[in-house]
Amino acid sequence: MKKEKKNILIVGIIVVILIVIVIGALVFFKGKTPISDPSGNQKVIASLESNSQSEVDTFIKNDLEENGYSLKEAKVYINPYGNSPLSAIMIFRTDKATTVTVTVKGKHDDDLSFEFENATDHYIPIYALYENYENVVEVTLGSGEKTEVKIPTIELENALDTTVNVNNVSQNDDGLYFITTPLNMQSFAIDSYGEIRWYADAMYFHNIVELDNGHLLIGTAATNGDGLSTQILEIDYLGRVYKTYEIDSGYVNDFTVKDDGNILLASKNSERETYTEYIIEVDRETGKVVKTWDLFEQLRDIDPIYTDDITRSDYFYNSGIEYYPDSDSLLLTYWGGEFVANMSYKDGSLKWIFADPDNFTEYFDDVLLKGEGFTYPKAMHSAKLDGDTLTVFDNGYSTNNGDGSSAGLSGSYSSANTYKISGNSISLESTIDENKGLFSYALGDYDKVDGDDVILFGRELKNFNFNSGLNLNDYDNVVSRLIVKHNGETTLDIELDWGTYSVLKISMKGVDFSFDPIKNCTTLDPSPKEDITSEIVQLVGKAQESVPYEFGYSSGVIEHNVLFMSSDEAKLVLIDDNKNGAIYELKVKGESESKKIITDLAKGKYYVYVYENDVMYKTDKHIEIS
Question: pTM here?
Fold first, then answer.
């Protein structure tokens, strides 16, 4: 009888395991039924669903290792990481190392091609797919062998609409325009026909920077208690994350990257209410702050009372930050405050300020650039410096003098201006104002790319009645215009039905792809810790009572939901199966708040215990550090 029961039990366990495996497989694939192309060779799978990026990586690698797909039988995963629905990855194996060329067939004879280096195991990212469309993609090996696969994509929810007014762009111009919006909190890329060709599913916004390896630096919607953004990701066009940067003090709008890879941001001095006048440099590998500059200190050195009346509500914030190694200087643009400042990278001293002199006291005369024959720009965005040539997007709306009311603003317009600097003098060389027909009172971008002027009128008020007396900020029929000019002639004019902030033209060539684990970088130093002692090991082993505390781990930070009394004292114990780990101060007796814990423990699985008021408690929780 015992043997029969044992056999029945074993069979039952096997059945349960098989059921779990089947259910797990169904859950892992969002698209439960593979979509095959007409040839029946390629398998095109909807995006993978998983708890972590590393699980997706492992699944894809194991799939190729176990099945060894040939080119003709290649597997395609659409949106494998779940946040880039117009991208895919194709996997296959060749007997000999070979290059691969991928060509995404364009709707308008505007194919996009991407090349990949020699390999035998091929993990080929595919970018720039059209939405809600059966995309035709041609894959060619270095040997000449080729195949064609059809990749269907979904219709994007809440995607913007575009209206193409002018498109005289050369067919050989294969760049896409990457655009961000802090209003809709999205990032996307369009081609010259206004078609969306890349889209970030998560709420990415603010600036985008292209890195030397073809990856993007892009902000997320994570914020701190001051409402400032706190996270920047390094991603590829598949949406795969390579690094996270946690900026504890936060930043606003813009960031830039030096040649050495370090990131420059306009951040907040914790001792002030205002923000973005405190510039920080973040190390590309560690995320630690390696250098700081304080714009307010420099302004006060010139006029001690200049900053006395500036508050957060004055919208004194940065709308552009650049670094120039030839002059070893920072270029800072301020929409609120209405000026562009050139600051020494070495010591933070102000080299010059470009602004309406009426906005500054006489103490600034020696650093102000003076000019005649033009109207000084008002609120500004995205200033750039090329030798002695300065470009500025002028919103045409004074944040210093205006209160947002439409009264007296009829006839206002925005422009993209180019100036020439000579010593302490400045002159206007050219202006692009679209016949004074566009008024983007906030947001906007201006850059020169391969001889073209690329301009984003970011927050245009559509059909606005200036006689209505409405506050500009209360009007929500906001659009933007992307305009490209070559030798003064408009080659591209696209209206977007969202307000937008920045534009960056990218070819999407030479993008590195790997399965490297995410590297978490933070401006915070690791919390002080104690070693695991034999006494702690004994207490952990004897712990009987559990507490319902929740703990989570992300990007080096341990978070929890525990509320302590002022009289409580507690330590957090993290311990693995080998009795390794660390002890952190969680709550100090007499203090009102618990500690924020930043851990630098080695990769692994750690069980969580709380040593509270001299009693060791289990939490039945663990954290995974990867």
Answer: 0.85
